[in-house]
Design brief:
alpha/beta; Rossmann fold; 5-stranded parallel β-sheet; two-stranded antiparallel sheet; 6 helices; 9 strands; about 30% strand
Length: about 180
Amino acid sequence: MTSDELKTLVRSVPDFPKPGILFRDITTLIGHGAGFAATVARLAQQAEAVGAQAIAGMEARGFIFGAAVAAQLGLPFIPVRKPGKLPVPVLAIDYALEYGTDTLEVDPDAVAPGQRVVILDDLIATGGTALAAVQLLRRAGAEVGHALFVIDLPDLGGATKLRDQNVVVSAIMDFAGH
């Protein structure tokens, strides 16, 4: 399927999670078997092309695509979790959101020193979560030079922020606005 065909499978929901936001919902994409498979295949090709040795996905929707890509490539999947979800000592990072702060955690034993880890998520908007994941994985010893997304919202600047941190960003599709 082409990028334009995949884009038609993404539902737009107005005024969610608050008035004025046009939410790009991937539920309809992952609910379309051929569309989901095509999306995972494209992401896997991109991860393989940049020499990924592991795939990291951010909770929660990054788990959907990241784990599927890792499985397709036979690579380890590194879950980047919300606080309190891992049963071992973790590395953690706090980061700013537009409406407060949040925390991400990772099991430091999930990352081998110098391992080339590609981060993967469903969407890049302002970049706060993705930047935090890059910093956290680098602190764990990973080399993080690439980030893959299904959707980029370029007007919100997240991809630019990642590029400023020497991360190459790729997305299957983009949507203007927010």
